[in-house]
Specification:
Elements lengths: L1 H21 L8 H13 L3 H19 L2 H21 L10 H21 L7 H12 L3 H14 L6 H24 L4 E7 L3 H10 L5 E7 L6 E10 L3 H11 L4 E7 L11 H9 L1
Helix pairs in contact: 1-4, 1-5, 2-3, 3-4, 3-6, 5-8, 6-7, 7-8, 9-10
Subcellular location: Cell membrane
Keywords: Cell membrane, Membrane, Transmembrane, Transmembrane helix
Pfam families: DUF2179, YitT_membrane
């Protein structure tokens, strides 16, 4: 039931983006809906008709390589999308004065919609199906592969909507990918930090007592300095990064700090429970 709800919400958001932002502002998309929009801009044929037709041509690929439950969800999703587009085409939408603004919000709404759809283990067909196949067979990144394939579809739009609106479309696709990643990975993003300092003991103690974080300690050896050091590896929420770096610099202004973006964190312990932190702080 939860997956069906996610599919309905995601598909509705995508249909809103297509009918209220993309179609009136000559902005295309990727995948089969991108091809359907290019057909619409060239001939006037509604995407609510061309979308399922294009999808049916690709259905054989999905049956061969993808799990049946995913194929069935995609079939449901594509025809639901066509229905929502048909329904929302009747809602009058005018071109925006600022096409860039339309492209940005089309990307945001599309990204949120795709996030819900991917969370439910479905897709909207086309390049999403190909991306799913490559993800299952080769382990390729789902959203990154979709972006590349979508961009290839959109490049064809240069000959239909022109280079300027094609560039607006690429902006929409990129923003959509970023937003999709946030929806899939969660908005509570994390940072991984490597710290090398001769004062690693003091830094580790302060991390534990004041910042409620847990550090993993490695033995490190400097090839240039020929010195042995303790390296700390810490995972923290992104919003605490500035405070974290400030605390380290107070102990060792010359500490070597490397910060990495972390897409997903699961298992293990990277923070100290609130009760334990209070106990340590009161000692």
């Amino acid at each position: 039931m939860k997956n069906i709800l996610f599919i309905v919400i995601g598909t509705l958001l995508f249909a809103i983006s297509v009918t209220q932002l993309a179609m009136p502002n000559s902005i295309a998309e990727g995948g089969i809906i991108g091809a359907a929009l290019l057909i619409y801009f060239a001939t006037g044929l509604t995407p609510s008709i061309s979308t399922p037709v294009i999808f049916l041509l690709l259905l054989g690929v999905s049956f061969r390589y993808l799990p049946r439950h995913m194929v069935y969800k995609t079939i449901f999703n594509v025809f639901l999308l066509s229905f929502f587009i048909w329904l929302l085409e009747g809602v009058y939408a005018v071109p925006m004065e600022d096409t860039l603004l339309a492209a940005i919000f089309a990307g945001i709404i599309t990204g949120i919609g795709f996030g819900f759809i991917f969370q439910a283990g479905s897709s909207v067909g086309g390049t999403s199906i190909i991306a799913r196949v490559l993800h299952h067979q080769r382990g390729w990144d789902l959203t990154g592969t979709t972006l590349v394939l979508d961009a290839a579809v959109v490049i064809i739009g240069i000959f239909i909507i022109g280079p300027v609106f094609t560039m607006y479309t690429l902006i929409t696709l990129y923003i959509g990918k970023v937003v999709t990643d946030y929806v899939l990975g969660g908005f509570d993003s994390k940072k991984a930090i490597n710290i090398i300092s001769p004062y690693s003991e003091e830094i580790s103690q302060r991390i534990t007592t004041e910042l409620a974080a847990s550090a993993t300690v490695f033995d490190a050896y400097g090839e240039y300095s020929k010195e042995q050091r303790r390296a700390l590896y810490v995972i923290i929420p992104t919003h605490r990064l500035l405070r974290f770096k400030r605390a380290i610099k107070e102990i060792d202004p010359n500490a070597f700090i490397v910060v990495h973006n972390v897409k997903d964190v699961s298992g293990g312990t990277f923070s100290i429970p609130h009760e334990s932190h209070n106990a340590v702080s009161n000692e």
